[in-house]
């Protein structure tokens, strides 16, 4: 079949993207689903910094590629061997396909699925198949098993979580990355308990989701750190008790003062090694720093190693919110429906696919939390 898609041909094109036009709208060919695979009509697709990292080259991937990894849609066709999904089911995508058999999956850590990671780096689905082609027959790579900047896509059944049909799909899409990653980092990776102090560095969609997660977990105080006053004020709305503008004061000292010695948990959601060092410096003796953002693979962070032992401080990563998507997406949706996670307020605006390049400019400038493409 033919489908409309935004195709990234080369990484490293500079902003402003309205001028450089890294994503070209094309009609591409899409092969039908194979064994264990599903054809999905994408209804809503979010714009995330992880997609921007592929565009600017800090997250290298094989080109050309149809990017996009935060999405929801409707099942239109299933291949042989698909038992749990049927046409017209509503689904949210997991950007790590979960094989269920490797050691991390067996240990209950599907975000670290080894075959899933290999497929994601290679630009294929879990089986190794590729379904997108240009009109001349040349292959277009998949992105994280999703490729949601196409109106139709084929995904492995292991990449899909069925949801109830009563949740608006433009909201459902946000659970596939922003919410799963940010809330998951708080409740799964850090396991924040009521009354524990939290500082969150960086207030994009993921960081703001971490603020929501900290509020739902009963953390106190919840300190939001960013460079933009507009985002800091939004963080107060999402549950932050204290605001720190890192461009006006030393954020490390500010957090340490507010918590009388340092936060018990600090979360870094920028993907910047300097901010990660600040987050680590803002924790107290025995504190934990959780790295959520994805820095460029060439970057490194320097810490005083003695503090890991003498102060029993912890630095740990959180990929996809340490989530078990089939468990966590439904429960986070339930928390939203119960009024505990105001996920709908993450949605800054909806756009058409043709507006994708200037929309990435807005994301790059920090003007928005989440923009969602709606296909018509």
Polypeptide structure, described:
The two termini are 17 Å apart. The longest helix is centred in the middle third of the chain and has 13 residues, at 178-190. The radius of gyration is 20 Å and the shape is globular. The chain has helices spanning 17-20, 49-55, 103-106, 114-122, 169-172, 178-190, 205-217, 229-238, 251-258, 273-281, 306-310, 325-337, 356-364, and strands at residues 2-8, 23-30, 37-46, 65-66, 70-78, 90-93, 132-133, 139-142, 152-156, 160-163, 198-201, 222-226, 242-245, 263-268, 283-291, 314-317, 347-351, 370-374. The protein is of the alpha/beta class. It contains 13 helices and 18 strands. Strands 3, 5, 6, 9, 10, 17 and 18 form a 7-stranded mixed β-sheet that branches. A 6-stranded parallel β-sheet has the order 13-12-11-14-15-16, sandwiched between helices. It has 2 domains: 2-176 and 342-374, Medium-chain alcohol dehydrogenases, catalytic domain (Quinone Oxidoreductase, Chain A, domain 1), CATH 3.90.180; 181-319, Rossmann fold, CATH 3.40.50.720.
């Amino acid at each position: 079949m033919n489908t409309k898609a935004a195709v990234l041909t080369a990484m490293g094109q500079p902003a402003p993207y309205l001028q450089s036009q890294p994503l070209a709208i094309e009609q591409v060919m899409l092969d039908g689903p194979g064994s264990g695979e599903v054809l999905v009509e994408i209804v809503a697709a979010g714009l995330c910094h992880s997609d921007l990292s592929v565009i600017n080259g800090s997250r290298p991937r094989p080109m050309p590629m149809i990017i996009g990894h935060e999405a929801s849609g409707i099942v239109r066709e299933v291949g042989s061997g698909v038992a749990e999904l049927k046409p017209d089911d509503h689904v949210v995508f997991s950007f790590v396909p979960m094989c269920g058999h490797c050691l991390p999956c067996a240990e209950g850590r599907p975000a670290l699925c080894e075959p899933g990671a290999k497929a994601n780096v290679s630009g294929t689905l879990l089986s190794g198949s590729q379904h997108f082609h240009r009109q001349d027959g040349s292959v277009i790579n998949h992105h994280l098993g999703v490729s949601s900047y196409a109106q139709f896509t084929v995904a492995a059944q292991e990449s899909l979580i069925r949801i109830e049909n009563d949740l608006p799909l433009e909201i459902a899409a946000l659970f596939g990355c922003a919410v799963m990653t940010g809330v998951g980092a708080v409740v799964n990776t850090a396991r924040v308990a009521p009354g524990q102090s939290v500082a969150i560095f960086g207030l994009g969609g993921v960081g703001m989701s971490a603020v929501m997660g900290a509020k739902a977990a009963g953390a106190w105080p919840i300190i939001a750190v960013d460079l933009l006053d507009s985002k800091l004020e939004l963080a107060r709305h999402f549950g932050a008790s204290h605001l720190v503008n890192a461009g006006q004061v030393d954020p490390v000292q500010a957090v340490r003062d507010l918590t009388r010695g340092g936060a018990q948990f600090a979360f870094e959601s920028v993907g910047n090694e300097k901010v990660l060092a600040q987050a680590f410096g803002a924790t107290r003796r025995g504190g934990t720093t959780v790295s959520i953002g994805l820095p460029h693979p060439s970057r490194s962070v320097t810490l005083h190693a003695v503090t890991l032992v003498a102060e029993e401080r912890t630095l740990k990563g959180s990929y996809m919110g340490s989530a078990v998507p089939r468990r966590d997406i439904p429960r986070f949706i339930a928390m939203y429906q119960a009024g505990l996670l105001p996920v709908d307020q993450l949605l800054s605006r909806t756009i058409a696919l043709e507006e994708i390049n200037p929309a990435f400019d807005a994301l790059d400038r920090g003007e928005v939390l989440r923009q969602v493409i709606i296909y018509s």
